[in-house]
Amino acid sequence: MTIIVTGGAGFIGSNFIFHMLEAHPGYRIVCIDKLTYAGNLSTLARVMCDTNFRFVRADICDRKAIYKLFEEEHPNIVVNFAAESHVDRSIENPEVFLQTNILGTQVLMDACRKYGIDRYHQVSTDEVYGDLPLDRPDLMFTEETPIHTSSPYSASKAAADLLVLAYHRTFGLPITISRCSNNYGPYHFPEKLIPLMIANALNDKKLPVYGEGLNVRDWLYVADHCKAIDLIIHKGKVGEIYNIGGHNEMRNIDIVKLICKNLDKPESLITYVTDRKGHDMRYAIDPTKIHDELGWLPETKFADGIKLTIDWYLDNRDWWETIISGEYRNYYERMYGELQ
Ligand code: NAD
Ligand code: TDX
């Protein structure tokens, strides 16, 4: 069994590779990653010498490179994590989001059609459903919730989902799609809420909370997401969409306060800054389908997962300090000004 994992030098893709190499010792895992600002080869250092693993630096939009790799590897399954993933960057510059997230997906599926595949899996997001109001806690996203996107990022992910469904219906491509809620855990890039707050708090820097911090996200420990995808590619029904989430809704401000408490840092570091444009209010996943059909349940409670995550950032300072001392500084200054 050979599985191509795209975007494997990023946050969730790398965690998925570690999971797959451990859970399926006989499988060959081939990672394709362009190594954008968000991809770190150091993340994959521990598997680079594994004989069941191969890393290839390539852009999923590069048709020639992708076809060549399919000719060499004859993959059984493709799992597409590769994407531009940060909402704020999509507001700053949407174009690369459309290129990678939509056209890259098309190139991968064309390769699957040309060379044959048992399964093409698209890693999507709950953001394709838009947002929910704060005063209707009874409402959650199901797989039938209409697509209703807010940001260039979510619009690009939704466009890719529609293309994946079209390739299934028109060409019979054996696809599945998963739409997960917000992930957290090791190797999360420090531009995202949880790792940004941990890194800033550890450096006694201000903690920039958008608006009033009342927006709600539904947090899932990354290992639970990886296990769900493993289940879907093996047991999920072709042509189907599966929502993934663990009923763990939290307000941003409460997450930031929890991080302060865990790190013994004062809440006076919290600074309210200009809100994100088009900021989605609340996400909440209904995971009934994946539970009922595939028996998936999240295993990590948030109280444990956030401790594991904070400990990981404490134990792996080199990993994130290298990132925040490089090119990332320019983005931080553009985004947050002189906030220290
Ligand atoms: P990430 O930004 O940490 O990693 C993305 C990876 O893709 C990086 O290694 C980057 O180098 C690579 N990449 C980008 N453009 C590429 C291209 N053109 N060709 C090849 N590689 C390219 O993202 P993440 O948080 O790990 O998200 C992975 C996937 O999961 C994305 O598709 C995202 O939409 C989805 N998702 C993320 C979350 C979350 O909370 N992070 C939740 C739901 C879904
Ligand atoms: O500095 C910040 N301050 C702040 O208040 C940042 C970076 C974020 N926020 C808020 C915005 C959101 O309400 O925190 C919340 C979480 O923000 P992000 O970490 O940027 O995640 P989000 O926008 O919810 O999107 C994430 O989940 C869905 C991933 O980045 C996406 O790739 C995924 O699809």
Mind sketching the topology for me?
Layout: E1 2-6, H1 11-23, E2 28-33, E3 53-57, H2 63-73, E4 77-80, H3 87-92, H4 95-115, E5 119-125, H5 152-171, E6 175-180, E7 183-184, H6 193-202, E8 207-210, E9 216-218, E10 220-221, H7 222-235, E11 241-244, E12 249-251, H8 252-263, E13 270-273, H9 288-294, H10 302-315, H11 317-325, H12 328-336
Parallel strand pairs: 1-2, 1-4, 2-3, 4-5, 5-6, 6-11, 7-10, 8-13
Antiparallel strand pairs: 9-12
How would you describe this structure to a colleague?
With 340 residues, the chain is α/β, with parallel strands linked by helices. It has 12 helices and 13 strands. It has helices at residues 11-23, 63-73, 87-92, 95-115, 152-171, 193-202, 222-235, 252-263, 288-294, 302-315, 317-325, 328-336, and strands at 2-6, 28-33, 53-57, 77-80, 119-125, 175-180, 183-184, 207-210, 216-218, 220-221, 241-244, 249-251, 270-273. The strands form 4 sheets. A 7-stranded parallel β-sheet has the order 3-2-1-4-5-6-11, with helices on both faces. A two-stranded parallel sheet has the order 7-10. A two-stranded parallel ribbon has the order 8-13. α5 links the parallel β5 and β6 (175-180). α1 crosses α7 (222-235). The mean pLDDT is 97. It binds nicotinamide-adenine-dinucleotide and thymidine-5'-diphospho-beta-D-xylose (TDX). The site of nicotinamide-adenine-dinucleotide has 31 residues, from α1, β2, α4 and β5.
